[in-house]
Amino acid sequence: MTEAARRAAAATSRGSPDGRSPLELLVALLDLERIEENIFRGVSPPESSVRVFGGQVAGQALVAAGRTVPAERRVHSLHAYFIRGGDPSVPIVYDVDRVRDGRSFTTRRVTAIQHGKAIFTLSASFQLDEHGLEHAVPMPDVPEPSTLRSHAELVAEYEVRTDRPTIHRPFDVRPVTEPVWAGDKRGERQERSQLWLRANGTLSDDPLLHVCVLTYASDLSLLDRVLARHGMSWATDTVRGASLDHALWFHRPFRADEWFLYDCSSPNASGSRGLATGHFFSRDGELLATVVQEGLLRVTS
User: Under DSSP, is residue 111 helix (H, G, I), strand (E, B) or coil?
Assistant: First the structure.
């Protein structure tokens, strides 16, 4: 296990004994230990949740895949399935299958394993940079992040419960649309939600780190959008949920420590499953990435 990973595993939920920030702890979590040519090991932060955060598993799996690919080939898409809930008390082993190394594209398949069983699978495709046709949907017209209150301020103001208080801390999150649990928004149906976010600090120039940090962030609020369509939230309603699958397409290079807008909506819910989509835009309006996720959502009394 790398020294960074050891320190991450031993750190408290608010920071490490040596004074490192939550973002530095997230970077340490993404610093996997290579234990064989195609086998890596990652840890989870100590927290009270009974399951590993899905964005963490996806981000770590993408790190494992990316470390077997030449640096000049950028990841352009990933498709993943959450098979079993992850156990945060033990390491996760990531087994990389080098499916194909072509002239322009590289394909990798990663299986995350705990207790001898697969808990998550990811397929990722990497490509050499090429020039071609260009177009993208425009960014919505939204207020600047500096004019908005942070997610942490809203949570404190409305004293809402959160089962995973640590997962937002590596990021500066500024909701454009206030959550359904906030003040007079409580129980209000929302067709879409928008929030600004960025890594809460400066990251290195490694492009793989930036896409893995965004992969982590992409799982922060997607299933919230399904509930918000019905005026519900994890904070005010009794809901059991879990991510089922997750897909991401990376359109243009970006830095995850610069502001980007996350514009989310939910086109469908049926069969105790909900589908959510999201677009990431840079501050100057470029479409950076697109995400789609389906999750299991069971409403209980």
Answer: strand
